[in-house]
Amino acid sequence: MDGPAPTAPQSLTRVTNAATTSQIRLRQSQVGKITPQDHTMSKTSITSARSHIVDDLSKKPKKNLRLKKMASYNYKEHSLVSSFVITLFLLVLQFQVGTSELQQNYYSQSCPKAEEIIKQEVTNLYNEHGNTAVSWIRNLFHDCIVEGCDASLLLEAADGIESEKASDRSFGMRNFKYVNTIKEALEKECPLTVSCADVVTLSARDGIVMLGGPRIEMKTGRRDSKESHAKVVDESIPNHNDSISSVLSRFQSIGIDTEGTVALLGAHSVGRVHCVNLVHRLYPAVDPTLDPDHAAYLKNRCPTPNPDPKAVEYSRFDLKTPMILDNMYYKNVLNHKGLLIIDQQLSSDADTLPFVEKMASDNGYFYEQISRAIVLLSENNPLTGDQGEIRKDCRYVNDMLVI
After folding, report:
1. Cβ atoms within 10 Å, residue 87
2. Over 50: is that where the pLDDT of 29 sits?
3. 78, 142, 229, 336: which is the annotated catalytic residue?
4. Distance (Å, whole) CA 194 – CA 197
5. What does pTM read for this prediction?
6. Paired residues of 105 in beta bridges
7. Which residues on neighbouring strands pair with residue 158, listed in sequence order?
8. Residue 332 burial (CB count, 10 A)
9. How far apart are CA 379 and CA 101, in angstroms?
């Protein structure tokens, strides 16, 4: 229903006040200034103006009624259109949030124990094979930076699919078989519900905790790719010999800034480097940016310039806390003990050096930044909603299986 129309005195007050102001402005334009008389117009003038307006309105009751009805109609029409637009917007927003975005506790209804199962399996595997925790972090990086977080990394070569694992960029990666150990436990609890892409993400989160790092809140709801991205792996994953500028540019292309990139490289605090990726800094001459004593240690670990790729010849990134994710990596870099060229460039680049120094002096700051960067990485271009599928076996698309 329409609200009550303003009473005559209220309407007349607005009109006569406006008329009074107009008279003052007219007087000002004529004489160049406002006189005291303008501010103290007599009550007689106002009363007279009101009486004239009342007489005028009383002569045109039908016209005023018609105008009132038209205004009421226009208001109702505008209100209906506005309500429709708002309702439509809310429905679209609800649809997008409900079906197309990653969410905290995505499996709270469909598989309430999912995250606890993954955590328990990661813990069990760490207790049996401590290096699995390092593998989970590397899996996240290699999967998410190549076309997004969709578990394409895990696909085996079969029926025309070329595996990303065969790329030179995947050299040294291992423990893929244990991903399916986690997936099998989930399938027993909730068949075809939890994606392999979320297994990659949550195993990395829990692996970081097993390595003494921070607990990171991560969203879920990813779906699995039905295809491999093997053809773009080499151009997607930075090489350890790339310049720092190209590495920064690559990460910036997926929304990770310089500070975040420096933090992600701190994952080199754990794990190891195969001699194949080290000898170019040792032979035929030692890289002058390497600490001489550390170079002597590395030559002892990698005694020939042509190591066997299949041999277990490697050096740890960090000799003091090799299986703890901490800021020791940055201290080593500042002391010229970084193993890869990209590691050492962090301390010589003007854009990255301030972050290296700050992370080396403040482990809490490093944890804050690597947590932020890991979240950004884990949310890079995921498949959601009706895209992709939920694989039963992380190694194969469902069309290859009898489900």
Report:
1. 10
2. no
3. 142
4. 8
5. 0.75
6. none
7. 161
8. 24
9. 10
List Cα–Cα distances, 103 to 100, 207, 218, 224, 340, in angstroms: 9, 21, 8, 16, 36
More confident residue, 12 or 67: 67
As given in the structure block, the two tokens for residue 399 are 């069309």
CA angle, 50 as apex, 48 and 52 as ends, to 5°?
A: 70
**Peptide bond before 284: cis, by omega within 30 degrees of 0?**
yes
CA distance 38 to 7: 28
Distance CA 391, CA 190 (A): 12
Which residue is it, tokens 């700051």? 365
The full DSSP string for 162-227 is PPGGGSGGGTT---THHHHHHHHHHHHHSTTTS-HHHHHHHHHHHHHHHTT-------B--BB-SS
3-state DSSP assignment of residue 91? helix
Q: 307: Cβ–Cβ under 8 A, 6 or more apart, which residues?
A: 274, 275, 276, 279, 313
| Continuous H helices in 220-362 | 233-236, 244-252, 258-265, 292-301, 328-334, 341-345, 353-361
- pLDDT tens by residue, 280-309: 999 999 999 999 999 999 999 999 999 999
Kindly list the distances between the CA atom of residue 61 and the CA atoms of 52, 53, 68, 175, 262, in Å, as whole numbers in the listed order: 15, 12, 11, 88, 77
If you compute the radius of gyration of the chain from its CA atoms, what whole number of angstroms results? 35
- Give the contacts of 139 (CB within 8 A, at least 6 positions apart): 153, 154, 173, 176, 179, 200, 203, 204
Total length of the chain: 403
If phi over 0 gives left and psi between -120 and 50 gives alpha, with beta otherwise, what is residue 32? left
Q: Among this protein's residues, is 280 annotated catalytic? A: no
Name beta bridge partners: 224: 389
The 10s digit of each residue's pLDDT in 233-273 is 999 999 988 999 999 999 999 999 999 999 999 999 998 99
Do residues 179 and 151 make contact, with C-beta atoms less than 8 angstroms apart? no
